[in-house]
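Why do we care about 3D structure at all? Because function follows from shape, and shape follows, mostly, from sequence. That is the central idea of this module. The next example makes it concrete: a single protein chain, its amino acid sequence, and then its structure expressed as tokens.
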Amino acid sequence: MLRNLGSLQRLTMDIEKLRENFERQKKIAEEIKVLSEELKNSKNPEESEIISSQIESLIKFLGKSGEEAVEVLESISVPKPLNTSQIAISPQIQSAKVTSSEKAETRQGVAESGETLFRIAKPKEKTSSLERLTLKRMKKKESKVIKKKEKKPSIYVKLASNFFNNTSMSLMKKGKFFMMRRDLIRANLDFVPANYISFIFFTTMISFFAAILITAFFLFFNFVASPPFFVSVEESLGPRFLKVFWILFVVPVGTYFFTYFYPSMEKKSLESKINRELPFATIHMSSISNAMIEPTKIFSIILSTEEYPNLKKEFTKLLNEVNIYGYDFVTALRDMAFNSPSRKLGDLYNGLATTITSGGDLPEFFDKRAQTLLFDHRLEMEKQSKAAETFMDIYISVVIAAPMILMLLLMMMRVSGLGIALSTGMITLVMVLGVTLMNILFLAFLQLKQPEGG
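And the structure:
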């Protein structure tokens, strides 16, 4: 009996190894599928070569996982059926009434399947309240089905790549757009660098045609403050063109610089969000590390809590480097520190890699780093509090007091006849539009400055 129980335990462990191996193979197969789709859509030979090399490495890793699964299957040994003649049957079981047909079915089932299944009447055992509660919870527990949504490139990005892909690749070979590409990776934007450079050029080209249309419109029409707001121009085309030709340059140049610096702005926004969550996540890591578990499990536990949405992507990328691409944990930490959008998170990765390499104390490392990050967080909160008071003073001065003073000046100019004499309706319209515009700009500025959830 003890030998059979030991064999059953080994069988359970082997089945668990097989389950983990199959899950790993499933993830690798999904990654190969995604890369195959990208290979089909890729028109650049160099990019196709890189994707093909990644697919080959994943296929090799999939083959190794398959060999491990075969080894586990070969090591599995099913326990032999128990010898019923050696089982001591109690008088209670002997006195149990078993019909001849049931005995025949039992013997036939054992003879056909060879499995250790016996229809031996067992005395009923009373289950405790704790066992009943556990069984009830196990019945209620349902497995969560996660449906992965595949993101397909938009038609606009495909058009941009068709027009400017060769130009983008040649500029990248020359080392152009280096900082923009670094910011694009750190900002976690769903763009390949070559595609985003093509997107910049294509958007700038479209904005140039839009600028031509806007210039042509204002060449013949002018904007006025009274209805119908647009009236035809009475002056000749030459002087009028000199007044509006700047639109041809301002719109495309503004579009180019906005799309160029957009990854940098996204990276800074993501950095501020990560820095707000990092102190509390580090405290959580410190408490988990006291259990002396594997360092990768610390990040897995943090991900399972789903309390840090902005750190979730960074920690997921770190675990993917280890579980999917096969890097060791220290190398993955160094790589993620280099590509991290947050300097503080990069310092945490580098410090953790150094601590693991030198055999340092992980709980002490996380505890000290949590104290430093929490101190910086408190200083940042104090700065934001002071800035909020300053913004309040600016709002009172600019949005409330300044329009009232300007309205009094315009009324005095109208009464005295000095300067530009505007009608009462025009003064009202100017004041309403001015105050509305200043409020919109101020609210947008505060929205950019305020912390998430603030």
